[in-house]
Specification:
Layout lengths: L16 H17 L5 H18 L4 E6 L4 E3 L7 E12 L2 E13 L6 H44 L7 H16 L3 H13 L9 H4 L7 H8 L1 H9 L6 H9 L20 H15 L11 H10 L7 H14 L3
Antiparallel strand pairs: 1-2, 1-4, 3-4
């Protein structure tokens, strides 16, 4: 960007100004450190900007307005105010383009201090930079997700019995998460992990993956490597740190009998325990070469019989509630 804001500085020698400058710098640091990885993070970032401005500048109202987008407010406005608009710019083809502004409203008896104005200009500059970078980050993230979905679809398309398996696992997992009241961030992680949980199978030889008969112990050991392979595929991609652990651990079992590490109980990540139930249920209710699919009723009974043994009982109960509400009415 062509515009460079003046740096905030302490006014040494003026009573109380050091403390005020320190507060402004703390608020600015909070804004700079806010991490943006998804679209929902962008909205939360704008709210964070308004909250930080409101915390350090006395005002009737602070708002952040984007062109064609919603407005982020601190609280309602009042009459008889003096208003300051500070543009938020992004750089396009070496030119600054305004995408909105920060609006500060004060009462007539409240002064707009020079240091406050410098702070707002700095915040607007940082907001423009982070917004522009975040758009690029989200585009990269969503492009990676789509590419990985293609890989998953490639694996599932090889076997008619597993087609759409990942989508169903993601849907069941989200149902469990809704019943448990998990926060949106964890639901987002669970949804992506549900879709990607078997991505490591792309590294399993088709002669084993699509074998018509029973697997030998050696072949099953190779199949079990798909969790590790999936983790290795996602490891270089910095966006998927949380999803990686779910891909790695979705075959762990409550009693420690799972793989790859034999984790037990609450040592297994909560979201991986959810995936374990969803994945097992979909496997039970899908046709295989060597058996027909179970009914939903029979499969959930088997899952419940293994509650507290193979699966977390709290998650099993949540899944049972979800199934009876959505599918078994």
């Amino acid at each position: 960007m062509n515009y460079q804001p003046k740096l905030l500085k302490n006014n040494e020698g003026e009573q109380g100004h050091e403390s005020e400058s320190s507060d402004l710098l703390s608020a600015l640091t909070s804004i700079i450190r806010f991490s943006i990885n998804t679209k929902s993070d962008i909205e939360n970032f704008f709210k964070n900007v308004v909250e930080n401005i409101s915390s350090v500048i006395p005002a009737k109202r602070v708002s952040l307005n984007l062109r064609g987008k919603r407005q982020y407010n601190s609280y309602d406005s009042h009459e008889n105010v003096r208003t300051v608009y500070v543009p938020i710019n992004i750089n396009e083809n070496d030119s600054d383009i305004s995408i909105g502004h920060i609006k500060l409203e004060k009462t007539q008896d409240q002064n707009i201090e020079p240091e406050e104005l410098r702070f707002l200009e700095t915040v607007a500059y940082i907001t423009g930079l982070k917004f522009q970078n975040s758009i690029l980050e989200v585009v990269i993230y969503e492009g990676l997700v789509q590419t990985l979905k293609v890989l998953v679809n490639t694996v599932e398309a090889k076997d008619v019995y597993t087609k759409f398996h990942s989508q169903r696992v993601a849907r069941y997992s989200m149902g469990i998460a809704d019943v448990l009241g998990l926060p949106k961030e964890e639901k987002d992680t669970l949804k992506i992990a549900g879709i990607l949980h078997d991505i490591g199978k792309i590294a399993i030889p088709e002669s084993i993956l699509l074998k018509k008969g029973s697997l030998t112990n050696e072949e099953f050991d190779v199949i079990k490597m798909h969790t590790t392979f999936g983790n290795e595929i996602l490891k270089p991609l910095r966006f998927f740190h949380q999803e990686r652990s779910l891909v790695l651990y979705h075959h762990e079992r409550w009693d420690g009998s799972g793989y790859p590490e034999g984790l037990a109980g609450e040592n297994i990540p909560l979201l991986a325990r959810i995936l374990a139930v969803a994945d097992s249920f979909d496997a039970m209710t899908s046709d295989r070469v060597y058996r027909k699919a179970m009914s939903f009723e029979k499969a959930i009974k088997e899952i419940k019989d293994l509650s507290g043994i193979k699966y977390d009982s709290i998650i099993v109960n949540a899944f049972d509630f979800f199934l009876r509400k959505e599918y078994l009415r």
